[in-house]
Design a protein that fits this description.
Length: 440
């Protein structure tokens, strides 16, 4: 029996994801604040890493995104922007809590605050996270609810309005009865509401007038496109040569490598192995941070280049843009752009926005497919139309679709309904019913 043995040799290429590569990818997703924490943690374990604190002057990066005039510090312009909700409450906590442990617990409550100023987590979860029993959690909730404006840290609408009513001295048995029966109010069942509150219609109307003067979203006044719970990472300004973007150097840490200390220690042959390994890590971290900064700036600059109309005219002019568009323009992979835009905030003349907010698909403008607006711009136009409508005769989805389609992207009624739901805008029937209540 003859047995033939053959061998085939082939070559293939594969990319092995090393630990350092994974770390470099992770750095792309960090905000300036998170990056500072990461570097400080690394510096605790590596004697050759020195951290330049955020706010210290840093050398110019190779990619400047348009340059800036001498003596022009973009970070100094942050003072012109209103204090964020997070900063507003944190400043009050600094005065309210002198005990470090209580301040830390209050900070955890603050982290659970949503854009409207309500608690976004169940109190049970906060109690568990803070190591409190429910009585302790309730007591801390009562304390943090003392901040101004009244209504912050509420768990629901009734509690939010109740806190404001207590603060203004409006809480009466009738007012309490209305808050306990908000579903009846939403259904415009005024007769039933008056009956359960034990009052006449005139007394009820007077109470509802006071109720309308309260703010169901006390935190929304601090929002600028997106609730800014930390300082922005990028700053957009307009100069003589057009729009430009800079890194927010007031929050941007830098890594320096202590080469002199390393050189002194390596004279000891027994320490050379350790020094070489730690020194290599320090040098790699410095390069990775520089690469992260350059990539972040490149992505921000390309977004600014594509969104000039938004910067000048507002959300109604936001242009269609995809991750692939930006990736191709700056020569990186689409996944890189996705990572960079995950946690980065950019302050613009139109407010502070997360970079993800600038990405929106295009809607067809005409038969040729040209002139399409972005879905984000259309949603903004829907908001504006609803805000300007007659409350007694609100626009139907069909009417909104016709208004936007006239000279703009062609919209179907169901598309308007979908976007309206995304924006939490009630139907025309619900808006009409609400208009009747407001007219009381």
């Amino acid at each position: 029996m003859n047995i033939q043995v053959s061998q085939r040799t082939s070559q293939s290429q594969s990319l092995t994801m090393t630990g350092q590569m994974q770390q470099a990818i992770a750095l792309l997703q960090l905000s300036n604040t998170d990056l500072q924490r990461y570097i400080e943690k690394e510096a605790e374990e590596n004697p050759f890493i020195d951290v330049s604190p955020a706010g210290r002057a840093l050398p110019a990066l190779p990619y400047s995104g348009g340059g800036r005039a001498e003596g022009d510090d973009p970070a100094s312009r942050l003072a012109d922007h209103p204090l964020s909700l997070y900063g507003h409450v944190a400043a009050q906590f600094d005065l309210m809590f002198s005990d470090a442990s209580e301040r830390a617990i209050a900070e955890r409550y603050l982290e659970a605050l949503d854009a409207n100023g309500w608690l976004s987590e169940p109190l049970e979860d906060l109690a568990f996270a803070c190591g409190l029993d429910m009585d302790g959690a309730e007591a801390m909730l009562h304390r943090v609810q003392q901040v101004e404006p009244a209504g912050l840290f509420a768990r629901n609408l009734a509690e939010c309005l109740g806190l404001q009513a207590e603060d203004l001295g409006l809480m009466t048995p009738i007012f309490r009865g209305v808050l306990n029966n908000l579903p009846r109010l939403a259904a415009a069942d005024l007769t039933g509401l008056a009956r359960v509150c034990g009052c006449g219609m005139d007394e009820l109307r007077a109470t509802l007038k006071q109720l309308r003067g309260l703010n169901p979203k006390p935190g929304a006044d601090f929002s600028h496109g997106e609730t800014m719970q930390r300082e922005p990472d990028l700053i957009v300004t307009r100069g003589p040569d057009g729009w430009k973007v800079d890194l927010n150097r007031s929050t941007l840490p830098a890594v320096t490598v202590d080469e002199d200390s390393a050189a002194a220690i390596t004279r000891d042959a027994r320490a050379r192995g350790y020094v070489g390994e730690r020194l290599g890590v320090a040098r790699w971290l410095r390069r990775a941070v520089e690469h992260r900064n350059q990539t972040t700036l490149a992505v921000g600059a390309e977004i600014v280049r594509r969104q000039t109309a938004f910067l000048e005219h507002g959300p109604s002019q936001i242009a269609p843009m995809t991750l692939a568009d930006v990736a191709q323009a700056i020569g990186v992979h689409e996944s890189t752009v996705s990572r960079v835009t995950t946690g980065i905030l950019m302050v613009t003349p139109q407010g502070t926005l997360g970079l993800k907010r600038f990405f929106s698909t295009a809607l067809q403008g005409d038969a040729s497919g040209e002139g399409g607006a972005s879905a984000a711009a259309v949603r903004y136009r829907i908001q504006r139309l609803v805000a300007a409508e007659d409350p007694a005769n609100p626009l139907s989805d069909e009417a909104i679709a016709r208004a936007i389609s006239d000279g703009g992207p062609v919209l179907a009624r169901r598309t308007v309904a979908k976007y309206r739901d995304m924006l939490n805008i009630p139907s025309s029937f619900q808006r009409k019913r609400r208009g009747k209540l407001d007219a009381i």
